Amino acid sequence: MGSGKAYLKQRSSDQKNDPDTNIFTIKFSDLAQEFNNTIHVDPYYCSNCRAILNKYSKLNFIENSSEVRYVCEFCENVNKVKIDKKNIPQNDEIQYLIQSEIEENKIKNEKSVIFCIDVSGSMSTTTKISGKVGCNSENYLQEYEMLKEFIDPKDRPHYLKKLQQKQKNVSHISRKQCVITAIEQQIKMLQEKNPEKVVGLVTFNNEIVVYGDGSQQPIVLSGEQLHKEEEIKRIINQNSKQMMQNSIEKQGDTIIKRFQQLREDGQTALGPALVSALELAKVGKPGSMIIICTDGLANLGLGSLDGDSNRNFYEELGQQAAEKGIIISLVTIKGEGCKIDTLGQLVEKTNGSITRVAPEKIGQDFENIINDAVIGTQVELEVTLHKALQFRGEDNLQQQNIIKRYIGNITRTTVLSFEYQLKSIEELGKLNININQLKSIPFQIKVTYINLKGQKLIRVFTTLVQTTQNIDEAEKEAQVDVIHVRIAQKSAQLAKQGNYQEACIYNQNWDQYVQSNQHINSNHINQQKNHKYSKHNAKLSIALKNQEARCQLSQQFKETSNEKQNDNDKSINLNKQQSTPGGEDTLIFPSSKQNIKNPQSTSIKTTQEKENSIQKNNDNPEVNKETTRPTDSISSSQIWSFQNKKINENQMTKYDSNSFTKQESDFSIIKDKPNSNSESSNESDEDQDFTTLFFYGKATF
Ligand SMILES: [Zn+2]
């Protein structure tokens, strides 16, 4: 509770948004603990408001009968129920077993973790790192083994030495290497701690390679197939059981080997990869997990985000996953615009997490994601307030004092927060309530869920809270951390609905309230907690303001572009000319989109000249293609950063990059290209802000 006391005070309509301590949070971590107070029958419900008979219900036993009469403490309805005395709750918290293990779950495999890894060209972008990342020291030998047949035998010792040198002074490391190292660590950890888990692998670039647990021949999907959801589902579904049958204990080393052989090039067919990964994950028990790891914009096949048309694709996929109790988490690597706002829908539907990390720090985040596993699926929440109270700031409630929500998956860190207040005088009058008689009021939380054993349960928590009509009294008993969670969560929720201005105002009002209220801050512990929170809130506040500014810019841009729609093409062409003063480089704009998709075609030769002896065989185009793989992306990234710099100077700084992609989809192609220089681009900042909002929305700070 936000305070030890519920504050009962009439509020006029202009005070509606004034802060007070009438807040409570619901933490779900308890559902993972062993729990003894389990009753093996259905609960007794109030026939009017569906509140569950609880420890505080005053029961009148009818003589010579098994019936009792009790007045519902929430709605004052008089109930008559047949009751077995041993099933009368004795504690605030009670659990009811509704259904023993669900048949479907019994035949399923263990829970699985599917790594869905981006191996598109941008993953070869290197990052400067300080200190060593735990890289596999044999990497260079493997690279050498793969390449040596293309290298003139007399040059081989020289090349090997060079690779060895490179490995020794790890000051640059590619994103792919970082990801691989991090996943290897996770696999080793799982082998030790959860050897029964099944780990699967799916990679994506121009094509999707579905490895499963690594025991079978991988399935490759490409070309037209990437646009056919049903076909992908059918193919993977037919094979998913065979591909996901071996535990990590048995398959771990094979999977690690597969990882190490991954190469990075091409585009980013994230959508079809996800469809495949979801089919694999369905083989496992509810609570299985997909971890997407990407640094770029999905731009090929289903769910391509080049335009604006595929947003629903991810939402629907999220829905399908949530129904099966599968969590999808997103790990994006700092550097490229990723449209986290769209992919975020997928993650939010399944209660996964979004993490945006520097490549070299990715390991810890994988660990956090894997450890924050599902503890309940198909979760439904119902909160009942006394009929004198109503929820504040909630839409579409059938009854003002009862909230019902389908939550889907929950993890240990899932927290929800709510606000309440006294109903208006008119409404209290209609209900015939005298608040002076309400010395205490009941709150009840019901969580219906399926636990990890596949049992369907209802956890009920009922409590009585003292009331006061004196705000000072309530504030003196304030629980500031509860209020902090609410500030963060509600601000982020408003923002995610697009109400940025409202979010900013809400955030400011409440933060000010909690920081400067003299009663709340008369307590030393509260002061310390507030001080700590103010730093968190500053970060949140900046993200909100940035988003608001972007929103306004986007509006302005839309207005301008509507007026000047016909002139648009001309101005783009003009910019193209301006930005290529020499006309000799590879700056590419909408008209020559084709070139963008194959940056190698223009860059191979220059790379070859600069690079080492690999070039020896470049007379043969086939061999050339192979040998340039590991290095061509370096040159393309150089070219791309050059291009982006020019585009930024000429275009992106004028308007927000997001509004630009919405208006002019050809531009967005740029963002999936290798680009070591885009840390400071607007698009990346927007991803950062969205990640911040997501993070605070989950109140996990
Ligand atoms: Zn009732």
Automatic annotation (TrEMBL):
Xref: PANTHER family: SEC24-RELATED PROTEIN, TYPE A VON WILLEBRAND FACTOR DOMAIN-CONTAINING PROTEIN
Record field: compositional bias (Polar residues): 571-581, 589-606, 630-639, 653-662
Cited InterPro entries: Sec23/24_trunk_dom, SEC23_SEC24_subfamily
Upper classification of the organism: Eukaryota, Sar, Alveolata, Ciliophora, Intramacronucleata
Annotated GO CC locations: COPII vesicle coat; endoplasmic reticulum exit site
GO terms, molecular function: SNARE binding; zinc ion binding
Domain Sec23/Sec24 trunk: 177-355
One BP annotation, GO: intracellular protein transport
Protein name (record): Sec23/Sec24 trunk domain-containing protein
Ranges for region Disordered: 557-639, 653-689
Ranges of compositional bias, category Basic and acidic residues: 560-570, 663-674
Pfam families linked: Sec23_trunk
